[in-house]
Design brief:
This protein is of the alpha+beta class. The protein is about 25% helix and about 25% strand. Bound molecules: ligand K1U and zinc ion. Ligand K1U binds next to strand 1 and helix 2.
C-alpha cells in the first residue's frame, strides 16, 4: 500500500502495518534546562509509539540541521538516538538501547556543537574509534563500528542519554559563561 504524502507531512508505511500520524517537530530542550541531566531508561518495546517518536526525532533533527539527536533532548528519557552524518542527509541511523562495547585508547580532539546549546562550538576529546551495539528501528540487534564524525556523534548522543551535555567537558569558567549567555537569550526571547 502506498501512502500519498507531501514533503512536510510525509507518512511512511509502518513496519507493523498501520499508517502513523504525520511526522511532527518536537521542541528541543535548551541548556541549562535541568531535564537535560535526567538519566534515560531502556526502551522496553520497539512498538508503534517508538516508531512515531523515531520519525518525529528525525524530522526535528533534519529541520534543525543537526547530525544527531537524543530522545533526552526532546524530553523523552528513554535510550534512543537518531543520527545522519551523510552529506546528502539521506542515511538516517536509529540506535535503540545503544551500548559502547569497545573504545580505542587513541583519543582525538574534535570541535563539537549541540542543538541544545545553539551557537556554541568547542573542542572535546573522545575515543577516536568505537564499537557499539543497538537495536535498529525494527528491533533487530545491530553492531556498529565507527570512526571520524560518526564516532564523535555516537559518543556525544550517548552522553545525552546519561544526562551529560558537552559543555560539561569544558572549564567551569567557559561553562558559566555559556550558561549566562543561554539564560540571557531565553529571557530576551520570552519578552
Ligand atoms: O546532539 C546534538 O545536539 C546534535 C549535534 C551532534 C554533534 C555535532 C557535532 C559533534 C558532535 C555531535 C549537532 O548536530 S550540532 C550541529 C551540527 O550539525 C554540527 C556541528 C558541528 C560539526 C558538525 C555538525
Ligand atoms: Zn547535543
Amino acid at each position: 500500500m502506498a501512502l500519498v504524502c507531501n514533503e512536510k507531512t510525509k507518512s511512511r508505511e509502518n513496519s507493523d502495518n498501520f499508517a502513523r500520524n504525520p511526522m511532527a517537530l518536537i521542541p528541543i530542550l535548551l541548556y541549562p534546562d535541568p531535564r537535560l541531566h535526567k538519566v534515560a531508561k531502556p526502551v522496553q518495546s520497539v512498538d508503534s509509539r517508538v516508531h512515531q517518536l523515531i520519525d518525529d526525532m528525525l524530522e526535528t533533527m533534519y529541520d534543525a540541521n543537526g547530525i544527531g539527536l537524543a530522545a533526552s533532548q526532546v524530553d523523552v528519557h528513554e535510550r534512543l538516538i537518531v543520527i545522519d552524518v551523510s552529506q546528502e542527509r539521506d542515511q538516517p541511523m536509529v540506535l535503540i538501547n545503544p551500548e559502547i562495547v569497545w573504545a580505542s585508547e587513541e583519543k582525538h580532539l574534535n570541535e563539537e556543537g549541540c542543538l541544545s546549546v545553539p551557537g556554541i562550538y568547542d573542542g572535546v576529546e573522545r575515543a577516536a574509534a568505537i564499537k557499539a551495539t543497538a537495536l535498529d528501528r525494527s528491533g533487530k540487534q545491530q553492531s556498529i563500528e565507527a570512526e571520524g564524525l560518526l564516532a564523535v556523534c555516537i559518543q556525544h548522543e550517548m552522553d545525552h542519554l546519561l544526562g551529560k551535555v558537552f559543555v560539561q567537558y569544558l572549564s567551569p569558567l567557559k561553562r558559566n559563561r555559556i550558561k549566562t549567555k543561554m539564560l540571557k537569550l531565553a529571557r530576551e526571547e520570552s519578552r
